[in-house]
Amino acid sequence: VQLQASGGGLVQAGGSLRLSCAASAMIFMNNATNWYRQAPGKQREWVATITPGGSTTYTDSVKGRFTISRDDAKSTAYLQMNSLKPEDTAVYYCNVRLTLANYWGQGTQVTVSS
Questions:
Q1: In this structure, what DSSP letter does residue 57 have?
Q2: Chain centroid, CA 88 distance in Å
Q3: Confidence of residue 99 (pLDDT cuts 50, 70, 90)
């Protein structure tokens, strides 16, 4: 398994969750890690990216609420999600895109109740 996401669950609106994406060192080092999500009946959408140098970008709907980070020693990326809203409900996927390959984790369900 190249990528494994975990940390999802059920939380009330306003709550927090932290997702983890454990990767093999070979694909984690020197590559950006991305988080995507897919809500029921909707297309998968990009959420956040962190580069090997630590630069981060976010989709507008999560700016100020979500924080992406990485621990190179553990080959793991994280997505800290605060002030969660019902519209954040989705399956969350981590992703590492290489030149010749595109790796996806298995997805972790996040459900935010109102």
A1: E
A2: 12
A3: confident
Residue 4, Cα to own-chain centre: how many angstroms? Answer: 11
Determine the Cα angle at 38 with ends 36 and 39, to 5°: 140
The H-or-E segment that residue 26 falls in is helix 25-28
- Reported as a single tens digit per residue, the pLDDT across 3-32 is 999 999 999 999 999 999 999 999 998 999
Q: How many other C-beta atoms lie within 10 A of the C-beta of residue 76?
A: 18
Q: Is pLDDT above 80 for 1? A: no
Task: Count other Cβ atoms within 10 Å, centred on residue 104.
Answer: 16
Longest dimension (CA), the chain: 42
Residue range 39-64: average pLDDT? Answer: 97
